[in-house]
Amino acid sequence: MEGRPAPPHSRATLIVGLYGALALGGLLLSAGRGDADVYRLVEARPGWWHLVSPRLGAAVGLLVVYGSRQITLRSAWGRALHDDFRSLLGDLSGREIALLAVASSVGEEIFFRGALMPWLGLVPQAILFGLLHIGPSRRFLPWTAWALVMGVVFGGLVHLTGDLGGAIAAHFTINFMNLHFIARGPAPTPAREA
What we know:
Shape: globular
Strand content: under 5%
Oligomer: single chain
Order of helices and strands: HHHHHHH
Number of helices: 7
Distance between the termini: 67 Å
Radius of gyration: 18 Å
Structural class: mainly alpha
Helix content: over 70%
């Protein structure tokens, strides 16, 4: 009907659009440089290795989640950052959390580790990854620094495994579990003094 305003875009549509564009940009960048396989960076690996790589990544992701929970529960800045993210993200449905975790892990890994890292190197891509994670205020700077470190960790997984499977699995595990913790978990309380 004419004159009827278009419905607003859902968060799911925006998530898929943003990370889909990032993945597409990574694929186009790689294709422009002549890299046909953005997922597998070392072709000499046996096929079974592509089953091991994501499992290794999931294990790394679980270790990072455990560490981030400890920081959240044991430090004032970790609790403040948790509360800021809870306020910023609002109510996320389980579907939105899963979609955000899948889309961000695949899109960012294809772009940063699959396309940029072979071209720029480990540290430059990690710096750009950190810069993508600048929050709306200075209070989010620890998240930016954490993202820079994680860019190095994800890149290290790619170097170790020779493919993006481990990095995608680690990234997904971290985002999925931490988004659930932020959106649905209990608000962190200060650690008791002994």
